[in-house]
Amino acid sequence: MTELASGTVERMPASSSAGAAGAAIVLHATGLQRRYRMGQEVIEVLRGLDLVLRAGESVAIMGRSGAGKSTLLHLMGLLDRPDAGSLQIDGTETSRLSRARRARLRNLNIGFVFQFYHLLPELTALENVMLPLMIQHGTLGWLAKRGAARRQSLAVLDELGLAHRARHRPAKLSGGERQRVAIARALVAQPRLLLCDEPTGNLDERTSETIADQLFALAARHGHSLVIVTHDRELAARADRRLLLHDGHLGAA
Amino acid sequence: MFKLFLAARYVLSRRVSYLGMAAIAVAVGALIVVVSVMSGFLDETRTLVRGTTADVIVTPVQDTAHGPPMPRQVLEQLTRAQPGVTGAVARLIRPAIVKVHGASTLLLNLAQFSDLNVVTVLGIDAEAEKPVSGLELYLHQVEDATRRVADPEHPFAIERSLIRDPKLKNAGLPHCLVGEDRMETLDLHPGDALVLSTISDNQEASAEAIKPSTQIFVIAGGFRTNHHPTDMANVYVERQDFLDWCGTSTEVSELYVRVEPGRDLAAVRDARKVALRSAGLSCEVETWQDRHRVYLGAVENERTILFCVLAFFVLLTCTITFCMMIMMVQEKIRDIGILSAMGAPSAGIGAIFAAAGGAIATGGAVAGYFAGEAVARNVDGVKDWLEDSFGIQIFRRDVYAFTKIPSVVDSRLDLLICGATVVFAFVICMLPALRAARLDPVEALRHD
Hints:
The structure holds two protein chains of two kinds. Chain A has seven helices and ten strands. Chain A is α/β, with parallel strands linked by helices. The longest helix of chain A has 21 residues. Chain A is globular and about 50 Å long. Chain A starts with about 25 loop residues before the first strand and ends with a strand. Chain B has a six-stranded mixed beta barrel with strand order 2-3-7-4-6-5. In chain B, helix 13 runs parallel beside helix 18. Chain B is elongated. In chain B, about 45% of the residues are buried. At the A-B interface, helix 2, helix 3 and helix 4 of A face helix 1, helix 14, helix 15 and helix 19 of B.
């Protein structure tokens, strides 16, 4: 178990990560702060949070509603900027990167899985999965890489048992299938870091188990680092580490 | 690549996109058709007016009461000597009240007074006229063979047997040529007679009453210029008959001048002015465009106004695309968040919506271009089909004096309309696109 945090929580060296000790650091957050202004009131959601995540490692982050789990996930996913602190992804300090470079870094290194799947309804399952690869290329580049991207996307869908549903639109898929398509989309560009926000929160128990099995198996097989924000203790139990976000800091759950 | 791909999907998956395209297509098509038809009208009107008017018209400024009349021969010779002038012929012109001989009333209908009871009488020398004006052509253009002159070489000649009224047969009356439209309207034929009444020059200015000078003219035949107003208003008589009827000493009312094709008419006009002034002759000189500038200007003005109105309509349909893009961005806020999460750059996200707006505008404008050009090129066929299908009269020949709806398709202008529509729509769609690009991805993902 490895944890760290600032302030009252013990700060652990990155190399002390269980299970992935010695592996390269994929994400290194130091002293992350994030506050929101609500009228006259300033709400400090994160108060100098630290986190080290190594390659192939999985971390579950728990906490009560409103604790700042999603805020943390958005910061780690470079969708938001911290008010203070440092965040390195794969050794790159991201706090001063331009919006475009952050987008590029996100595209190449980070995959997202959301509770409500967030698939684009106009696209088929395969097209949804291909989208991150499409974003990587300009028109001409895409024409050259399209075949390979298609094969790659189909392979990921196949790994998730959805090759036969590749041409279906999200509206024709069940909740579990949609989430598997969302996982395939998150994995297709082979990101270093996979960020999941309540990935089973919208599924029944049995489907949740299947999805969790597949998610962890794929992450382990391909060496993705995994951060799961969840309320589900069973899901959290599968992670290498379980952390509790409380009062703006991370601590052992 | 994702920009074009998603833009295409967003556009193709929405029925409202097709409605937007249809609106733009209708607007662009309508603009192209109207501009083509109005250009056709202008062109046709120019041709007709051109055909009935001299290249340059010289009008002596004279007052017969205060000095000798402008000498015809001097004026003709001086004009013919001008470089570029191929012919010049003097005409005598005078307005007259007209009545069909034998008709019981003068005024057929007060409302029609200006149309039917007033004519412009032109006193011409038929032989001199032929090489200069289009008289010979006008005689041949008469559609009803029974109204043609017996001998175009001698247009004013008529067989005595054709004169209907026995009292007129041996009266040795002068003859005239009448426009076919007037002949049709009044059911006139060669051999019928018109009574023309005008004011002679031999008036005592201080007299209480104005004495008219009246003469019966037997119709020798008709002419057709295809310019309806001319074919209703003009009556040709022989020069000597005109002089006898009016008792005028005027030798020239106007000089009808033909100029070599390709010559700059304005330059010829200006040179004419200088030459006549040098010769001490006071004359107005004008080109055919000068003479009809109000009439032609009105048609041109109409075209411009219609262009502006329909162009405004096109812009309005472009703003529909703008509204559609605003709604699309609003509807796709969560997609924008997802795309941001996948690493799509802000500019790329904005480009999706700009491209979608551009695609709708382009689709509509291109469809409108082809539809508009197709209709404009076959406007008469479309008119016939509409008239046959719906039993409505779209085009009245008697109003416009054209046998068919004229249309001049200017593909360059049409392409310009098409391009301007696309550019305008694209530019205004940049606003919703910018909004999409600037959306905070976190807020977008949380959007419900």
